[in-house]
Inverse folding.
């Protein structure tokens, strides 16, 4: 006979939202079970932010070393030790994963269960040989790389962001299908490590969700490092070719086929929801498998919430953690926090990085509101010049009537950090003049924000 264990709350998954929520319940004296079927910490810790940004750091150090003459030194015959690069990445990732697991196992009132959870009813979950029951259940199962149906997909070996974590060699010619965030970061990493790299993108430009000037500047940065980019690849297909792989493309210009040694698919994400038994609980999901939630992350079934990448309301570590904050404050502090209160913000970790917040130019134009804008090249920013990193620009748009910041893009040295100056002012709903009149520290990149905001002109 199957045993039934009772808890105050059940959390499925240990991504960025699950563990802090478990600690919050446990700290309030509630019993909580948290279930993990694979690696503790989810995508960010194991196959996302931490390992990839560790690789970015190694690639950056190698890139600077190659530019030693620009800074007044010579490293001689530089050799990349890819095994050591991988080991450094693995240790950073494992350290974080171990920390998540240890933290959960040492938390009083928290029961850690390893296994595959499936709903049996709206308040019961089966895992291993047990049935767990709780009045509140939280789904935090994350997502994985999409593998779309395309000609040759089942005949040719390919990599995803997850399987790449095991790669301990340098591809001779890396073909990356997908010109968005994941694809661009890996493209620059492996080009700097020593691979030939070609990006194949179906759209007319890279990172199509961004403004055209951002896409163009990123293209120029990557091409300057010797990365090949094929745009308008309308019909992508895969095939084996002479001990390597080929990606068939139909482009406006250039050869119809790109031949390389390895392929990375970086064409989007899919939620890990198809094997949860959502139908048994009556939980609704959209056609792509994302769980439908309201503005407070509640599903259509009372007592069940969905947090993190599986709810389609954000695709970043910081949005997942913010999901936890929203749910926890609403449950434990009787707050009324909502997903719609947060401002879109993210970064692209190529070098130099792109920091983004708020609306794009296209969204501002569509809104029809009167706006002012300013754009400033990083080549005129003293701190960037001193560092020898002058690529990119800073761009800010504000509402002409309220003087509140509508959106910004900072592509350049420190862009991923400087963007927060603008983001915090946006959350405060303060006018841009607060920044304009602030005294910033010299020499920094952020100190140029007041100068830039003094050059606002009608938005074109």
């Amino acid at each position: 006979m199957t045993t039934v264990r009772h808890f105050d709350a059940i959390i499925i998954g240990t991504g960025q939202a699950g563990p802090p929520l478990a600690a919050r319940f446990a700290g309030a004296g509630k019993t909580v079970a948290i279930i993990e079927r694979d690696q503790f910490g989810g995508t960010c810790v194991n196959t996302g932010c931490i390992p990839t940004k560790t690789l970015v750091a190694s690639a950056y150090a190698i890139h600077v070393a190659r530019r030693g003459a620009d800074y007044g030194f010579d490293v001689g015959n530089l050799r990349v030790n890819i095994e050591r690069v991988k080991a450094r990445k693995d240790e950073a990732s494992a350290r974080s994963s171990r920390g998540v697991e240890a933290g959960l196992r040492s938390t009083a009132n928290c029961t850690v269960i390893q296994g595959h959870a499936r709903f049996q009813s709206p308040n019961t979950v089966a895992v291993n040989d047990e049935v767990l029951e709780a009045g509140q259940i939280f789904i935090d199962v994350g997502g994985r790389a999409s593998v779309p149906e395309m000609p040759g997909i089942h005949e040719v070996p390919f990599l995803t962001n997850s399987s790449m974590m095991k790669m301990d060699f340098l591809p001779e010619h890396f073909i990356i299908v997908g010109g968005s965030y994941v694809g661009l970061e890996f493209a620059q990493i492996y080009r700097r490590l020593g691979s030939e790299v070609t990006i194949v993108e179906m759209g007319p430009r890279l990172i199509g969700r961004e403004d055209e000037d951002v896409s163009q500047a990123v293209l120029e940065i990557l091409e300057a490092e010797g990365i090949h980019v094929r745009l308008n690849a309308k019909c992508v297909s895969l095939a084996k070719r002479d001990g390597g792989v080929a990606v068939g493309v139909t482009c406006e210009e250039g050869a119809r086929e790109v031949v390389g040694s390895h392929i990375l698919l970086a064409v989007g994400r899919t939620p890990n929801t198809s094997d949860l038994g959502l139908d048994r609980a009556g939980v609704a999901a959209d056609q792509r498998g994302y769980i439908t939630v309201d503005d407070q992350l509640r599903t259509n079934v009372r007592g069940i919430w969905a947090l993190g990448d599986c709810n389609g309301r954000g695709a970043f570590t910081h949005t997942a953690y913010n999901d936890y904050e929203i749910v926890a404050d609403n449950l434990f502090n009787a707050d009324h926090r909502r997903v719609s209160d947060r401002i879109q913000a993210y970064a692209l970790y190529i070098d130099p990085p792109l920091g983004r917040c708020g609306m794009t130019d296209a969204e501002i134009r569509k809104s029809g509101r009167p706006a002012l804008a300013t754009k400033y090249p990083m080549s005129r920013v003293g701190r960037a010049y001193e560092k020898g990193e002058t690529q990119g620009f800073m761009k800010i748009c504000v509402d002409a009537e309220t003087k509140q910041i509508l959106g910004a893009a900072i592509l350049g040295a420190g862009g991923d950090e400087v963007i927060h100056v603008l983001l915090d002012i946006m959350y405060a709903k303060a006018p841009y003049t607060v920044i304009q009149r602030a005294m910033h520290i010299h020499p920094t990149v952020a100190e140029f924000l007041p100068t830039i905001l003094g050059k606002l002109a009608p938005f074109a």
